[in-house]
Amino acid sequence: MTQRRWLITGCSSGLGRALAEQLAIDGEQVLVTARDVTALDGIADLGPGVVTAPLDVTDDAQCATAVELATERFGGLDVLVNNAGYGQFGVVEEVTDAEVAAQFDTNVYGPWRLLRHVLPHWRAQGGGHAIFSSSVSGVVAFPGLSAYTASKFALDGLAEALAAEAGSFGVKVTILQLGGFATSYGDKVHLPERPIDAYRPVSGGMLGALRGMVDSDQVSPPALFADAVRHVAGLPEPPLRLPVGPSAFALLEPALVARQADFEAARGPALPGRHAAADVQPARAR
Fold this sequence. Notes:
Layout: E1 5-8, H1 14-26, E2 29-34, E3 50-54, H2 60-74, E4 79-82, H3 97-125, E5 128-133, H4 146-166, E6 171-178, H5 185-188, H6 200-211, H7 222-233, E7 241-244, H8 246-265
Parallel strand pairs: 1-2, 1-4, 2-3, 4-5, 5-6, 6-7
Helix pairs in contact: 1-7, 2-3, 3-4
């Protein structure tokens, strides 16, 4: 197996930790990062190619430093795994502007910051692979996860735009549509500062489900995430989207079928959104 050079965010626990540990055992060159670098104690002992560093993806200076460190220590960078993220709980009416902004700052703007620093290196070396830890929430909306869902929809849009823009430079993009995993995500979810009791019947069940994910037999072990990332990174032509975990397939299929049904229904002549191709004229320059 060809040794690759990695940068992974969000490795203090859960999915990122599982991936970092497996890559270290594989003998890969890996920059393993987390906001609190002390949470990475012991990982560097698993393999000679492991380097640890602090990285808060909301800090552009730290993003730049991490990319510089990876390229200096490894001579380049092949795979960026945008894994850092968290969940803001709350329905649309509950979540404040500040809570939405913080959610997007980590889940969307963080990967965007890193890409600005990584892409010049990839253009120079003729390629790289950006892997995004997204979610079924990038396709399916769940009550009580309004800000998180919006951030994952936006992250998927960022990734698809990147694939269209940087593909000619050899840059590959994969969106991991993650189902439920046995991590501490549910326990760490941020609660809204201004909860509204009227929504408890709507969102309360979802909060309970999130907090029970670790002990549920409906979730996947973090090792499955590590296996999926290692597999997709080794493909010569990786997919743009990859569902990961049985629950991802179970949740995505009905949502995609429903979207297709809406699309087919829109072909009907009674709907105002339908126009014959010949009737659609390009806008005139003004």
